[in-house]
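Re: the multi-chain job from yesterday

Posting the exact lines I submitted so nobody has to dig through the queue logs.
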Amino acid sequence: MSSNRFNGFKDLGVGIGLRLPHYDHILSKKPVVGWFEIISENYMIDGGRPLHILDQILEQYQVIQHGVSMYFGSAEPLNREHLKRLKALVRRTKTPWLSDHLCWGSVDGTYSHDLLPMPYTFEAAKLTADKIKEARDFLEVPIAVENVSSYAEFHVSEMTEWEFLNEVVERADCGILLDVNNIYVSSQNHNFDPFTYLHSVPIDRVAQIHIAGHSKYEKYILDTHDHPVIDPVWKLYARAIELAGPTPTLLEWDDHIPSFDEVHSEALKANRYVPSNVPELAAVSE
Amino acid sequence: MNLAELQRRFSEALYTPLNSNEGIADRTLRGESMQQVTETIIKPNDRLSSTERLEIYSRSYWFRLISSLNEDFVGLRAVVGDQKFDALVQAYLTANPSRSFTLRNLGSRLESWLRANPHYIHPHEELALDMVRLEWADTECFDAAEDSAITLDDIPELGEDPQLHLQPHIQLLDLQYPVDTLLLEIREEEQESDEASNTFSETRTRTRVKRVRNSNPKPVFLVVHRVDYLVYFKRVTPEAFRILTSLQNGMRLSEAIDAAFNPSTLPQAKITELVQGWFREWAEWKWFGKQAA
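And the result, structure tokens for all chains:
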């Protein structure tokens, strides 16, 4: 099991994203699930139904926070209001680690609400690592950064994406949320071998893995999280597990969300790749 | 080019509205050639030009933000019509890029922007502004804090003339049109509509909006509040509304009641009876909270 200091030494198994269409099912049926991942920003609020639901989930399940707007790679400083709200949520959920993306998305106080690709430069790596360290010191919880899907590359880049990832996580001494679907999507969009990327990842830093589906267009692939996981992505996942050992794994399904059982059973396919001498990570719900 | 410069250049292209075919525009908001901007920063590949690669992000940005405002302001869309709403939203977002880490706050400046740019809602300015205020109040109410409630029995213990604090989720709106019922009808239509009945649903919505548009303005005093995590709209009398507004502004109980009924032709006994009834109701709905220290 890839339990390490970047995931609080937790053996969590397979989890799924906590999404609104499944609230009633989860609260009424109480399915057996390893853990739920929440989008932090959905709960960085003062009150109301989302926090009420979250509190009920927290009574029964382990919750891990995943963010979408910290923007470690933006040239501007971290947003202090964002950090304060995030810290309040960390205290509420007691998440053993939290993740956000290795990307940028804000400029001069304006927000794109997207995960924009980094230029792979030493300047960007240093700034990003400094911001990760600052956030970790403030939040007092391990941070894992997730590789994103990308559709553009910059002239100024001085290294490959995987070299950039290494540079950032070594400088920040942080964990990695390894998204094998994102590796696959970017490999198709930028013509590289996804296994070259995977084999370059400092595997001892992998705190968590994401799997997901995507959409294929004529000239590129889009990371849409609205399909089952395809075979080439499972192959990457199998190799990642072979390298890292069983690792907390999360299926992302964010659009055209099917029933809870369908999402859950897709996620549990990850257990096929757990070595036979290791117990399965989470039982199928009844 | 350093990181800050690159991100500014990228954002200028990203924040430029799409063209009429929902593709990337030829020129940025600053009038520069989009092709030149993208070629300066983005590498082409064997399938896509620099501009086409940025277009993937640009379309995603605009679709995401427009979709978010569409969800939050279904009532405004119904009032002004689809075409005007699309133009309004694009202009609003161009003038007001998001300044919050959450899309929840995207519409926070819509009312003030529409007041400064009324041609986007002409000739239904008042109705549209009422609807925007209501839809934003609904957003604010949904996830605002809720303090421990004060019961009617607790009130005497707060002193002879207490300052009663309204729950943070309570929003008070003085409106010109009955947009509360209109919005509920529009939402019901949206929920009920499916592929087969879309046309009928849209027609019903248009008829309802037209009915309200053509009616004479009639003041509505509305409390947007929350019970068991659900948002409700409650109409109150002008006097009750003035009391609640005064309490929200920090006035003491006696001052709030004076402000509501001064002057009034009602006998004091009637005023007392009314006020007691209102406070009984409001306390039952947990509208008063213990303010956090």
